[in-house]
## 1
Amino acid sequence: MVRIETQPWETMVEHARRVYPNECCGVMLGKASNGEKRVSRAVPLDNAWQGEQRARYELRPEDLLAAEREARAQGLELIGIYHSHPDCDAYFSETDLKNSCPWYSFVVLSIQRGAFGHANSWLPNAEQTAAEKEELICGE
Ligand SMILES: [Zn+2]
């Protein structure tokens, strides 16, 4: 289960709306204990995808490393990665699966006509062949 506190949740939604109709991406920092992950910080990152960004995002490996270092410096963990789906449902696409890593939660925000629609969190398997939906609580 992933619980995203109000402040990071607002950061994520605002980021997704700001870059609409493109996809946004960023990382979620927080703590994990007893099977519950609690996100206390969201860090917006650049979408580094060189092509059309309406249906694709890419994180720079160095941005991800910097975020990991920042998390550690604050006594937090990198809980997962978020990105948006402009005018699409918050499903986990084949591309998302291919670019995933099994140790992170992947939160997808569906933005419909510039407004927040819904969100899901996904846990990819180690083979990157499927992702399981994870319980997600936002803004608490
Ligand atoms: Zn996606």
## 2
Amino acid sequence: MNKHAAHFWEGCAAGELRYQHCAACAALQFHARAFCLRCGGAKLEWRTAQGSGTVYALSSVARAPTDEFRALAPYVIVLVDLDEGLRMMAHGAPGLCIGDRVRAGFFVHGGRSLPRFDKS
Ligand SMILES: [Zn+2]
């Protein structure tokens, strides 16, 4: 795990959804990197999302990609448009629909705290 991703996961352990904000162009990015995907700038600041958003898309995963997630299957993966203006992927509660207003929570699996959205 690179140091940028580590900061994200430390946030999850603390109950925070962290993302990067570019000081040069104000772009937001969920997948932590050393540079801004839009302008290439290296001056990125960490911010914490409020945790509210809207379901943009979702999928039910019946065949988990790794042994770690096999015990959870079937489970729901959602793309959520956070109110701050960025899209992120996370687990979702069963029964969610596209367009639902959701709020982030966290659950521990495999020794890590993972974000999971449920209806708000
Ligand atoms: Zn930028």
